[in-house]
Amino acid sequence: MSAEALRALHVPGDPLILPNAWDADTARLVEEAGFPVVATSSVAVAAALGYPDGEAAPAEEMFAAAARIARAVSVPVTVDAESGYGLSGREFADRLLATGAVGCNYEDTDHAAGGLRPAREQAARIAAVREAAGRDLVINARIDVFLRAPDARAALPEAIERARAYLDAGADCVYPILLRDEAVLAEFVRAVSPAAVNANGPDFAALARLGVARISMGAGLWRAARDRLTEHLKSLRA
Q1: Residue numbers of the domain that contains 29
Q2: Domain containing 219 — which CATH number?
Q3: pLDDT tens by residue, 54-76
Q4: Which of 53, 126, 133, 186 is 20 to 30 A from residue 91's alpha carbon, by CA?
């Protein structure tokens, strides 16, 4: 399936719902349940491979996992590619597209430095990926300011500035991860309209009313599956 098919599913007010998978088996379950796209969760994929999140897993293993997932399903696959694993825009785009994926999350956290990249630097990185991939990749630019900000409203101006810079650089969608305050999220959506906004949260209807175009469940399914398995193992042990 093409990037254009994935891109067309980003409709403000009628959001694309993404249950995030972590291997070929769970990806097939997502497709069999009727979802039109499979997304991955970096923390879940890394854990399945035996590593912590935050680019601790080798890029080769993460791309190999993405390739197995893409081969297992017939719907578009979008990969949580963290911050690009230190690769140049060209190498990142080439290696990601080689997996069969047609979309990615691309975050502005610098895992090596342990903080946010300057907005201009991240915009340049997005522009490099866009130049290398052309229209063959849907770029979901993750904005991480709310991961570190205790006051969502105080962080809003920086988030909007970053969103606009990333969209100007070629991102298809912007993702202010962990922005859960509905009033602040509504302001963010209005500020970047008509661009597609990714959000997360349990109330899908409320997010749709706010004009969100994409809803990620992140590590939610993986955590729920682990919790259920943990409880079952405890019962077996007992």
Answers
A1: 3-237
A2: 3.20.20.60
A3: 999 999 999 999 999 999 999 99
A4: 53
Taking CA atoms, 65 is separated from 23, 53, 54, 139, 160, in Å, by 7, 14, 16, 19, 33
pLDDT of amino acid 148:
87
- Residue holding tokens 């009727």? 34
- Rounded to two decimals, what is the model's pTM? 0.96
Closest CA to 4 of 174, 194, 138: 138
Q: How far apart are the C-alpha atoms of 106 and 115, rounded to whole Å?
A: 15
Task: Tell me the mean pLDDT in the region 127-147.
Answer: 98
Closest CA to 142 of 39, 2, 27, 220: 39
- CB burial of residue 16 (10 Å; 0-12, 13-18, 19+): buried
Residue 3 near residue 200 (C-beta atoms within 8 A): no
- On the CB side of 74, CA atoms within 13 Å amount to 2
Both structure tokens of 29: 């379950």
